[in-house]
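To: structure subgroup
Subject: Chain for Friday's discussion

All,

I'm putting the inputs and outputs inline so they're searchable in the archive.
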Amino acid sequence: MTVIGGPLVVSYCSEYHVVTVATLLTGKAFITMAYNIAYLYGSEIFPTEVRNVGIGIASMMEDIGGFVAPLVAGPLVTLIIIVIKY
């Protein structure tokens, strides 16, 4: 995530919107790959009872995170834009 975070900040501040979009999509792709690898690897490493509970809890947290993320990201993006302007 740190490798992707630096270019995201730099590209967000630049006027090159193509670079910004490409960097954001690359970051999204890496996050999706990491999630899929962790999901597949985690399902193979644990016994069935633990795996079912773990995947259930992870799925529940994923749903909660999907609900809360827009509520957190909206004000955060507004704050970042205000800080960058001044």
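Points worth raising on Friday:
The first helix runs from residue 2 to 13.
The chain has one domain: 2-85.

D.
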